[in-house]
Amino acid sequence: MNDIVSFLGENIEMIYILVLSVFVGVEVIGKVPAVLHTPLMSGANAIHGVVIVGAIIVMLNTPADNILALALGFVAVVLGTLNVVGGFAVTDRMLEMFKKK
Predict the structure, then answer these.
(1) What mean pLDDT is reported for the chain?
(2) Each residue of 69-82: pLDDT tens digit?
(3) Where are the beta strands (DSSP E) in 21-98?
């Protein structure tokens, strides 16, 4: 229990930034019209590509005995990859609509 309290005490500023960024993200995405969601997904693909690379770098620098960090890194890589692939699939379908038949 003391580990959790000390962790929270040492990283309280980062926790505030995380919580505020979640609220700002929800507000920004909530105000986007439905017509723009698919083009914005294309931009999000690039961001998630950075997330995948970052998760891989973190996993490479994690000790082999830290199973929790490795598992979370693996989940981050898998979810980021699914998001990138899904985003490109949706973008491809959107661009197919604009091709002449």
Answers:
(1) 83
(2) 889 889 989 988 88
(3) none
3-state helix, strand and coil shares in percent for the chain, rounded to the nearest 5: 85, 0, 15
The token duo for 33 is: 């019209």
Helix axes 37-60, 67-97, angle to 10 degrees: 150
Over range 79-101, report the average pLDDT.
81
Q: Which residues have a Cβ under 8 Å from the Cβ of 64 and sit 6 or more positions away? A: 70
Q: What are phi and psi of 33, to 5 degrees?
A: -65, 155
Spatial neighbors of 56 by CB under 8 A, at least 6 apart, are 73, 77
User: Which token pair is 32?
Assistant: 């986007």
For residue 55, what are the contacts with CB-CB under 8 A and spacing of at least 6?
A: 73, 76, 77, 80
Cα–Cα distance measured from residue 79 to residue 91, given in angstroms and rounded to the nearest whole number: 18
CB 73 within 8 A of CB 55: yes
The model's confidence at residue 19, banded by pLDDT at 50, 70 and 90, is very high
